Amino acid sequence: MNQDVPTAEMELPPGPGPLPPWLRVKIKKRQLSSSTRRLLGSHHVATVCEQAGCPNIGECYGCGTATFLIMGTVCTRNCRFCAISHGKPPPLDPQEPQRVAEMAGELGLDFVVVTSVTRDDLPDGGARHFADTIRAVHQRLPTAAVEVLTPDFLGNLAAVAVVIEAGPTVFNHNVETIRRLQAEVRPQADYDRSLAVLAAAHQMALELLIKSGLIVGLGESGEEIRATMADLAQVGVSILTVGQYLQPTRQHRPVSRYVPPEEFELYKEWGREAGIAQVISGPFVRSSYCAAEAAREVVAK
């Protein structure tokens, strides 16, 4: 155990203070690619890049790629870490899957990442809408791979099956944090329910790549991170992302600490030791960061 990693018994400081140097550079470079932004606007397609205030937005938009956000921009849940608006969302737009597919075609993507707000107001949690989007992308881009980052569908495994039957390449669902902090960080979710969703997806299609994500700097210990990695490996996760939590607004949960870059390197070792094939770990890593590269590396292995 690296002695610089906090243990569960260590008292965390009340606040981390100013941004450390390794977090300042990219935060100041959130310039968007105007061409990508114009295309998204012309197709009326939302991205989680903008809605969640991702620090990588300039990099991804500048490369002509984005993570599409479906089912609106208002979430039925109110997670303490997330910048996306919460409240009562509008009805689903049946034309949205086709617009996403057209947008992916305009960008010339060969790896398409689709996520959504959580829609607990819908009987299937939006599973059919996910499936329609996957099929629309396959029709528009027959050779493209599709990664979906889904909510937990309230544990409805039939809804998970609907998504998987549409043929994604990667099924991603984030546990976000360690077990102890779930109720504080994502109060309307459940750690074991998330594990059950990942396990079911793995069992439904053994060739499917299963992925999850963690954000750190919320008050977790090193032992808890390792335990979470072991849990994820046990349910079939082969790709894990680990990134630094950054407080979106003062109304969100404060950052407990800024994790140094060398500790993120340690997380890669822990993940491999736990049995996870590919761990993408770094201060600015987010769920869909380098998604295509991660999937290809796992397949190559």
SSE layout and pairing:
Layout: H1 21-27, H2 34-43, E1 46-47, H3 48-51, H4 57-62, E2 67-70, E3 74-75, E4 85-86, H5 96-107, E5 111-116, H6 127-140, E6 145-149, H7 157-165, E7 170-172, H8 182-185, H9 191-204, E8 209-216, H10 222-234, E9 239-244, H11 261-274, E10 278-281, H12 291-300
Parallel strand pairs: 2-5, 3-4, 5-6, 6-7, 7-8, 8-9, 9-10
Antiparallel strand pairs: 1-2
Describe it.
With 301 residues, this protein is α/β, with parallel strands linked by helices. The protein has one domain (27-300): Aldolase class I (TIM Barrel, Alpha-Beta Barrel). The protein has helices at 21-27, 34-43, 48-51, 57-62, 96-107, 127-140, 157-165, 182-185, 191-204, 222-234, 261-274, 291-300; strands spanning 46-47, 67-70, 74-75, 85-86, 111-116, 145-149, 170-172, 209-216, 239-244, 278-281. It has an eight-stranded mixed beta sheet with strand order 1-2-5-6-7-8-9-10, with helices on both faces. A two-stranded parallel sheet has the order 3-4. Strand 8, helix 10 and strand 9 form a beta-alpha-beta unit. Helix 2 packs antiparallel against helix 5 and helix 7 (157-165) crosses helix 9. Mean pLDDT is 87; it is low at 7-14 and 27-32.
Number of strand elements: 10
Relevant CATH superfamily: Aldolase class I
Low confidence ranges: 7-14, 27-32
In one word, what is the shape? Answer: globular
Overall residue-averaged pLDDT value? 87
Head-to-tail CA distance between termini: 27 Å
**What is the total domain count?**
1
Largest sheet: 8 strands, mixed
- Helix-strand pattern, N to C? HHEHHEEEHEHEHEHHEHEHEH
